[in-house]
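Thread amino acids onto this structure.
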């Protein structure tokens, strides 16, 4: 939405959202859409520290780092509203889903070297094509298809997990995904009506916050499931009685 102070970054060349531009700073186009990525980056950092501290497989460290990269890319996009920065946000979104696909399906994949090779070239090819061509609805359809491909495996992990606390993580994952999607849709579909309100609920910023927690709950659930597969006696414990993380005991597998 055009409005506010003069632009440091020049004319808008990317998709805009339902937030007035350059209201609080000439350096930040969409202020709330920018700062709302901070919780997700911090949650990914917490997950990374836990994965490194307990020596989880490297795939989870890479996953948490990808969450952080995605959050930083989103901040740059919403701060500048430039096409290049938007691509720097959207491409890591696809890479992140390819990582989830690998973590979900690789344990039962018989030809283990083929999956990471295929996913690597798929991700690299997408990055090149996305840099050359501007996608609109095509990117969203592609992203939704990748999400749908992950759902059956997530459901299988859920039904085979007996731990109540781990199942609660999966439910929190679904709840945050639903709430975040409703915020995204309302911001996108009803922007004209929302613009007339005295107060803008900042639906896209709420999407960022919900998806930051969504990624953390998904990662923690997958870490629990993988630790079960490896016989590491995982437990979901809570800091201050409410913040969950996975604690493992590798000696039980020896």
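Threaded sequence (254 positions):
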């Amino acid at each position: 939405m055009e409005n506010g102070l003069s632009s440091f970054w020049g004319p808008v060349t990317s998709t805009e959202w339902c937030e007035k531009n350059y209201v609080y700073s000439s350096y930040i186009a969409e202020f709330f859409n920018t700062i709302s990525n901070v919780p997700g980056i911090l949650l990914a950092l917490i997950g990374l520290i836990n994965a490194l501290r307990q020596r989880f497989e490297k795939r989870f460290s890479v996953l948490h780092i990808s969450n952080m990269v995605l959050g930083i890319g989103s901040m740059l996009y919403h701060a500048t509203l430039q096409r290049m920065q938007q691509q720097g946000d959207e491409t890591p979104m696809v890479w992140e889903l390819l990582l989830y696909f690998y973590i979900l399906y690789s344990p039962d994949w018989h030809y283990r070297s083929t999956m990471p090779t295929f996913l690597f070239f798929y991700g690299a090819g997408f990055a090149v094509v996305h840099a050359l061509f501007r996608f609109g609805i095509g990117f969203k359809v592609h992203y939704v298809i990748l999400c749908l491909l992950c759902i059956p495996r997530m459901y299988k992990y859920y039904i085979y997990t007996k731990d109540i606390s781990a199942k609660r993580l999966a439910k929190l994952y679904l709840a945050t995904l639903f709430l975040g999607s409703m915020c995204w849709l309302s911001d996108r579909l009803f922007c004209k009506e929302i613009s007339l309100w005295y107060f803008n609920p900042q639906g896209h910023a709420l999407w960022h916050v919900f998806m930051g927690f969504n990624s953390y709950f998904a990662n923690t659930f997958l870490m629990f499931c993988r630790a079960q597969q490896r016989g590491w006696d995982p437990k979901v414990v809570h800091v201050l009685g409410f913040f969950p993380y996975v604690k493992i005991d590798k000696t039980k597998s020896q």
